[in-house]
From TrEMBL:
GO cellular component annotations of the record: nucleus
Alphabetical keyword list: DNA-binding, Nucleus, Transcription, Transcription regulation
Entry's family note: Belongs to the TBP family.
Pfam families reported for this sequence: TBP (PF00352)
Chief place of localization: nucleus
Subcellular location: Nucleus
InterPro entries: TBP, TBP_dom_sf, TBP_eukaryotic
GO MF annotation: an example: DNA binding
Gene Ontology biological process: DNA-templated transcription initiation
Listed name of the protein: TATA-box factor binding protein
Length: 249
C-alpha cells in the first residue's frame, strides 16, 4: 500500500540504482543521501517515517478487524400459537410459569434447557427472549407451545416464528474519542455523557435497507442492536469499524 502512495507522490528517481529498488522507504533515503541540503534531508526522512507509521497502523487495523467478531448476547423472537389462551389456567397448570396481571398482562414462562424466557399473551402471541442461538429460541418456543397444549389448549400450533431483534457485543481493543465522533457525525449520533456514558449511533445508510442502533463506549466496547440476523450484525460492524479507527485515542 505504501509503495503505491509514494510512487504517486514522487517523480521517478534520478539514478538507475534508486530506480531499480522496489522498496519505497529505501528510495526516500536515497533521495536524502543525494541531496546536499541537510534541511531537505531531514524533511524527506521525516516524511518517510510518517508514511511507514501510517501504513503500519492501517495494516494493524485490518488485522484486528479480521480477528474481531461480534458475539450474540440475546435473541428476541416471536411466535403465534393460533389460539386464544386463558393465562390464569396456564399459570396454574405449568410449574415454570408466573402470572401477575398487576405487573404485566402476560404469563412469564422460563425454561432451563434451552435457557430462555417467554412472554405468553392472551391473544396467543409468544415472545421469546434470553436465547443466544436461533435454534435455541425456536426450540424454546416449541416447548412452550407443548406446555400450552398440555394445559388444556389442544388447538395451539407453533406458527410464524420470526426473529425480531438480535443484541450483540464487540470490543475494538482501543479507546474511542466519542466527542470527536459525535461532532463529525452529529446527524447520526446522540451523545450526552451527563445522562448516559455511551454514544448512541443510528446506522442507516442510504444504499442499504439495514437499520441498526449502536452503543459506543470510550473503552472501545460496542453494542449492536436492531438487526434480525447475524450476517447483518457483521456487516454493520465491518462498516462502522473503519470509522471508529479514525477516532482512536
Amino acid at each position: 500500500m505504501s509503495d503505491d502512495i509514494l510512487s504517486s507522490l514522487f517523480d521517478p528517481p534520478l539514478t538507475p540504482s534508486s530506480a531499480s529498488r522496489s522498496n519505497s522507504t529505501s528510495f526516500l533515503y536515497d533521495m536524502a543521501l543525494m541531496s546536499d541540503n541537510s534541511v531537505e534531508n531531514d524533511k524527506i526522512i521525516e516524511f518517510s517515517n510518517t508514511i511507514i507509521e501510517k501504513s503500519s497502523e492501517i495494516v494493524e487495523s485490518t488485522i484486528r478487524n479480521e480477528t474481531i467478531t461480534p458475539e450474540i448476547q440475546n435473541i428476541i423472537a416471536s411466535v403465534h400459537l393460533q389460539c386464544e389462551l386463558d393465562l390464569r389456567m396456564i399459570a396454574i397448570s405449568a410449574r415454570n410459569a408466573e402470572y401477575n396481571p398487576k405487573k404485566v398482562n402476560a404469563v412469564v414462562m422460563r425454561l432451563r434447557d434451552p435457557k430462555c424466557t417467554g412472554l405468553l399473551f392472551r391473544s396467543g402471541r409468544l415472545m421469546i427472549t434470553g436465547a443466544r442461538l436461533e435454534n435455541d429460541a425456536r426450540l424454546g418456543g416449541k416447548k412452550m407451545a407443548k406446555i400450552c397444549q398440555k394445559s388444556g389448549f389442544p388447538k395451539v400450533k407453533f406458527t410464524n416464528f420470526k426473529m425480531e431483534n438480535i443484541i450483540a457485543t464487540a470490543d475494538c481493543k482501543f479507546p474511542i474519542r466519542l466527542e470527536g465522533l459525535a461532532y463529525d457525525h452529529r446527524d447520526f449520533c446522540n451523545y450526552e455523557p451527563e445522562l448516559f456514558p455511551g454514544l448512541v449511533y443510528r446506522y442507516h445508510p442510504d444504499n442499504s435497507p439495514t437499520k441498526a442502533v449502536l452503543l459506543l463506549f470510550v473503552s472501545g466496547k460496542v453494542i449492536v442492536t436492531g438487526c434480525k440476523n447475524y450476517q447483518e450484525i457483521c456487516n454493520v460492524f465491518d462498516n462502522i469499524y473503519p470509522v471508529l479507527c479514525q477516532y482512536r485515542k
